[in-house]
Amino acid sequence: MTRIAIVGVAGRMGRTLVNAVQQDAEATLAGGVVEPGSSLVGADIGELAGIGKLGVTAADSLGAIVDDFDVLIDFTAPQVTLANLAFCAEHGKRMVIGTTGLDDAELAELDGYGDRVPMVFAPNMSVGVNLTLKLLETAAKALGDEGYDIEVIESHHRHKVDAPSGTALKMGEVMADALERPLKEYGVFERVGQCGPRTDKEIGFATVRAGDIVGEHTVMFATEGERIEITHKASSRMTFAKGAVRAARWVAGQGNGRYAMQDVLGLE
Ligand SMILES: NC(=O)C1=CN([C@@H]2O[C@H](COP(=O)(O)OP(=O)(O)OC[C@H]3O[C@@H](n4cnc5c(N)ncnc54)[C@H](OP(=O)(O)O)[C@@H]3O)[C@@H](O)[C@H]2O)C=CC1
Ligand SMILES: O=C(O)C1=N[C@H](C(=O)O)C[C@H](O)C1
């Protein structure tokens, strides 16, 4: 039985994760943490998640539940996640990290914990997106140097704070690696005004933020006369949460290292 704690337990993903852990026969909900000072400290995390009392209350720090859990699932914000990694390194805990929007310095800091913490870090925990990444690698290799323009379009709910989505960036990276076109050089993240025509090798990104869209990603390979589109649409956050719980069970048996969902799913 994997003892799982969830940080950010009152958030959109936090509440969905409570549901997902409860539904998993090989995992147990060992604790939940909300922001220090939150009015929700002490609330039953089952009630927060809308599934009734579970007898587990929201703590205001990881220190308060340190002896209760083995794996921490964190879908919060970059600086919160890094602070939690430091805690897990110090206390011999494992982590599943779904937080997106880390900048280069924050990613380097996260990487630095790879030799001290067994962690799964992935911008999208759904099986479908991770399979899509393999499809994109294949499509980019076949089409990218044959005159097909590559564009990534992502849509999310109006509350999302980072752009492009972590998933869109990961899709871009996978194709950039397959084509040996570094994303820092070939990624185009903004087109406005007299920006000139498209260059052949750029990988373009476009972002939509609207309403309650859970998460949609389309990659377009377009040339004169035809267009291929590979699309993934998430219609429920449960797809991410179930993936995260699967990752937590998997990482419970791993040594130190930074792993991806591809490792968890055996897709590498
Ligand atoms: N990898 C994946 O599959 C997925 C990744 N994500 C990513 O997960 C992250 C969270 O998304 P979402 O759930 O929609 O966002 P929310 O804003 O709904 O949730 C984040 C939660 O973290 C809490 N929080 C902030 N600081 C702390 C702290 N110091 N200690 C404890 N809790 C804290 C917030 O509390 P408060 O509201 O009080 O500030 C909030 O409840 C984003 O980066 C998103 O992109 C989302 C879906 C899937
Ligand atoms: O913030 C979200 O909601 C999501 N974030 C992730 C991302 O940035 O890719 C994954 C998913 O699409 C939902």
TrEMBL record:
Residues that coordinate or bind (S)-2,3,4,5-tetrahydrodipicolinate: H157, G166, T167
PROSITE patterns assigned to the protein according to its UniProt record, in alphabetical order: DAPB
InterPro entries recorded: DapB_C (IPR022663), DapB_N (IPR000846), DapB_N_CS (IPR022664), DHDPR_bac (IPR023940), NAD(P)-bd_dom_sf (IPR036291)
Active site, renumbered: H156 (proton donor/acceptor), K160 (proton donor)
Subunit and interaction comment: Homotetramer.
NCBIfam families for this protein: dapB
Function: Catalyzes the conversion of 4-hydroxy-tetrahydrodipicolinate (HTPA) to tetrahydrodipicolinate.
Protein name: 4-hydroxy-tetrahydrodipicolinate reductase
Organism of provenance: Halomonas saccharevitans
Lineage: Bacteria, Pseudomonadati, Pseudomonadota, Gammaproteobacteria, Oceanospirillales
Gene giving rise to this polypeptide: dapB
